[in-house]
Amino acid sequence: MRIVVNTRFWTEGLREGYGYFKEQVFSRIALAQPDHQFLFLFDRRPPADLQLPDNVSLRILPPPARHPLLWKLWYDWRIPPVLKQFKADLFVSPDGIASLRTQVPQCLVVHDLAFLQDRHWLPASIGRYYRKYTPRFLKKVQRVATVSETSKRQLVDMYGMLPDAIDVVYSAAKPVFHPFEITERTAIKDRYTEGKEFFLYTGAIHPRKNLIGLLKAFSLFKKRQQSNFKLVLAGRMAWHSGDFESLLATYKYRSDVVLMGYVDLDVLVGLTASAYALVYPSFYEGFGVPVLEAMCSDVPVITSAGTSMQEIAGEAALYADPKEPAALADQMSRLYIDESLRRRLVEKGRSVAESFSWDRTAQGVWGSMLAAARRD
Question: Is-above-0.70 flag for pTM?
Fold first, then answer.
């Protein structure tokens, strides 16, 4: 086959989200399928460190598609001529956006439906775009892959898709996450938290992530336990984070909150491995990669009940209603008091972490691609 892959977001530097998914999955697929030809489409200069097999060619297709008007231009007007020129048998788009102006079979990866959950979670123009066009994308493509059974159920419930037309291809953690020795953990705590134990949150500071709820829960934990624990927040300030910043400015335990901002991957790996626990109270996620990163690091997890994170972690995490800070504080206190519970969660987490890998994800996406091209 001749396959065109949308590799937008596979950018220079630390790749997150869609970009890292594309890098891990499609580099593996191309290497494992030497009899097929691939064209990777970028909307800006690709990373300088790309190492790809001979069956992959690259093309930069301007303009950089940074907002909905340019998305429309890029997918519907710039991509179809390339598909025709390349004589493509399949177009793969791993960021939830299909091309509506081509007859080439398409495989679409939909990571989540966050744009349907709360209209305050996205800029208005982006939310309108996804709400308007996602139904059209799903009708247009031949196959859909998604990263959890939770997301699959939502696709079926919200858009009436047939379950047999959707493949679940779980995501995975970056392989650099691993347990640290006690001396390494001590050094990291000395550097960032004055030697104190800490709860960790990793990810963007964004309304969907429920950081205000986390601050309220941490306040309750501190009052109940009279503990010197810190709360470390590692992630960039994202859209609509003003309410969080206002609360933090007057927060009673502000001196116990370490706001790291965006951190490099090596710092994130160390923080994760050194945390007493990861607290990930997001209202909604398609998968929830930080949960898996913590388990790879022998760190227990407290996360949101009734979400994809519960599907991923199973019995290896503690859960709380993300809308109830007191319930979240209960689980933080429970873990603080019961060290044997913490050890059991670490052991269960190791088993969970071993069941996810990028090789399995790539195999699943390849199967979905074959089904889209009607060659499975």
Answer: yes
